[in-house]
Design a protein that fits this description.
alpha+beta; HIT family, subunit A; 5 strands; about 30% helix; about 15% strand; globular
């Protein structure tokens, strides 16, 4: 895996404003926040995308994310927030180390703006797709 800004943060080469740390996870404030309290949650394991992450690191992230969300809500006073995680350049991933953004949404103009161009799932295609996904598991 390529050396990233997050691997440099994990090695202590670049400082961060740490929010949480344990043996598997580090959470810190985003230096380019979309709103106050925007926090990044990363595994210490060097994996570029979520599907490459070990079960152990994924479980650790799953335990920590709700705690970070609760803290962000409490400190910012925001009831609404987004949790964003991108995988690959086409999905807008800019740092190729798994990371989750916890982004407070205080009002309509701050925080994450999202477009959602929903399509339609045809029943025949849905049945075939679900079967293929089950087989892939």
């Amino acid at each position: 895996m390529a050396d990233t800004i997050f691997s440099k943060i994990l090695r202590g080469e670049i400082p961060c404003h740490k929010v949480y740390e344990d043996e598997h996870v580090l959470a810190f404030l985003d230096v380019g926040p979309l709103s106050e309290g925007h926090t990044l949650v990363i595994p210490k394991e060097p994996a570029a995308t979520l599907d490459a992450l070990s079960d152990e690191s994924a479980s650790a992230i799953g335990r920590v994310l709700p705690r970070i969300c609760r803290a962000v809500k409490k400190v910012t006073g925001c009831e609404a927030y987004n949790v964003l995680q991108n995988n690959g350049p086409l999905a807008h991933q800019a740092v190729f180390h798994v990371h989750f953004h916890v982004i407070p949404k205080p009002d309509a103009t701050h925080g994450l703006g999202v477009g959602w161009p929903a399509g339609r799932l045809e029943p025949v295609r849905a049945k075939a797709l679900a079967e293929m996904l089950r087989a892939a598991l």
